[in-house]
UniProtKB/TrEMBL annotation, chain B:
Name by which UniProt lists this protein: Branched-chain amino acid ABC transporter permease
Keywords assigned: Cell membrane, Membrane, Transmembrane, Transmembrane helix
Main location: membrane
Keyword DNA-binding: no
Species of the source: Maritimibacter dapengensis
Subcellular location: Cell membrane
Keyword DNA damage: no
Lineage, highest ranks first: Bacteria, Pseudomonadati, Pseudomonadota, Alphaproteobacteria, Rhodobacterales
Amino acid sequence: MMANTVISLRGATKQFGGLVAVDNVSFDVREHEVLGLIGPNGSGKSTTLNLISGALPATDGEISLRGGTITGLPARAIARKGVSRTFQLVRLLPSMNVLENVMAGGVFGHRRRWGQSAERHAMQVLEMIGMADKAKSHVGQLTYIDTKRVELARALSGEPEVLLLDEWLAGLNPTELTEGIDLIHRLRDEGRTIILVEHVMDAIRSLCDNCVVMSSGKKIAEGSTDDVLSDPEVIRAYLGDDDA
Amino acid sequence: MKRADWQNLGWGAALLVVAALLPLTGDGYLISLGVSIAMYTVLATSWALFSGPTHYISLATAAFFGIGTYVMGSGIEYINYWLLLPIAGLIGGVIAALVGLATLRLSGVYFVIFTLGLAEMTRQAVTWYQNQTGHKGTYVLTELTDPHIYWQLLALAALVFLLGWAIGRSKLGFALRIIGDDEDVARHVGINTALSKVALFVVSGATAAIVGAMIAPRYIYIEPATAFTPMLSFQVVIMALLGGTGRLWGPLVGVIPFTLLWEAISSSFLNQTTLLLGLSFLAIVYLLPGGFVGLYDRLRGRAKKRSAMA
Ligand SMILES: Nc1ncnc2c1ncn2[C@@H]1O[C@H](COP(=O)(O)OP(=O)(O)OP(=O)(O)O)[C@@H](O)[C@H]1O
Ligand SMILES: [Mg+2]
């Protein structure tokens, strides 16, 4: 493990009854790195994120954040240590407006603020993602990409050490997709550490420094994005999935 | 504090003063009705502090109320009345904390069943204990009359409203709203969901115990069947839902019409009260989701839309 490693998985395993959804997976994420976690449907990408964020306890293996183990900690403790995430199916707080949704991420998390200062900071995050004008809107009135933006803003407002994005670009139309990729590019340029679970190849190519490829719960490849995407085994895993 | 806060505080204080004048009428029936309304206001408001944001339906009101009644009943011979009120609150709060820690990890359905069972279990335990010691009930003899009890309950109501208002503006209040919206999200933004829920459950448990202690002198002779009547738990739920748990004043708006109606109905149909309770529950859930508060918000939303279009 290198000195600037932020997240490190060693033999992470998750079993659901007889199904091994994540099978002995190890990889490191370094500071300022955008790591793509890719693989066909059902290969265990979301489950891996769930293990890191503490949504699910690992069956085996060790996960650490900046060298300290977080295996077995509850999600709230892991969030406080600086892991933030979005969900594959967007989860906003339906009774609250946009600003409150964003504040929710910055009051109890990694960097905590309250009152005026929490509100100011949430506004800054909303400005950064281009939604300041909708701060008082109810989340039920938002377009799809805006719901995704709000969820991202909530994850950012706790100033996390590492950001886990689970198919944040999925379901966007072509124009929205360009906007979405631009937004994540900005996060990348800010030097954030991100694990990006994604199916959109263009996004992976332009955003990820390195990729880890999963198939049926196992890590089948790892390395720089270009190398990994031209690896015959990776292509086979994807095509096999598509043709079947 | 914002201007609206001062305004609300002013309204609250004015309402309290007017309500406090009721015993001056000297009308025993009115005063006794006032005691009921004040009692249900405290119970339903503190119930909603917990159940409103979390959506957990607690049927433990009767358990905490009964515990408070018995704290007063068994302590009044030895300890000063005014000391017994906080003691009842403390005991109620501790029991609520234990029950909460054990059950609030459970999903909603199990929690409902457990809280209902708690009231029944406590009642059985007290009955068993009394049988062991050869008593059937306990006398609570004090100089306190209905007006005194009424004023005490009003003061407690004011306290509960202030507390609810303070919680609503606190981080704890914000955490509970997030939990109510999506508990998984709450955990992932760093909220200790179990502790937040327990904290509010303790508030409602302690409050119900204090109410029980305040009401005890009115019964004069207390037995498990009167102190732990499960009907109380259901009434509180229905009143809170009728008013609506979305706002602090919601339960109050449910308590007043319900108590008056109940008074009228139960005096003429004594044997059908349980049936009527069930029917009114169904009526509220089907016809008035969100209670009066929900109705008010919907009407206001519609008015806003209309004025926006004009
Ligand atoms: N809570 C759960 N209980 C049981 N099985 C689960 C659970 N969560 C995931 N699985 C199973 O684990 C496997 C991996 O699922 P996972 O959601 O991690 O895949 P994924 O790579 O994120 O797929 P996708 O690209 O479709 O989102 C699947 O077979 C899935 O059915
Ligand atoms: Mg997934």
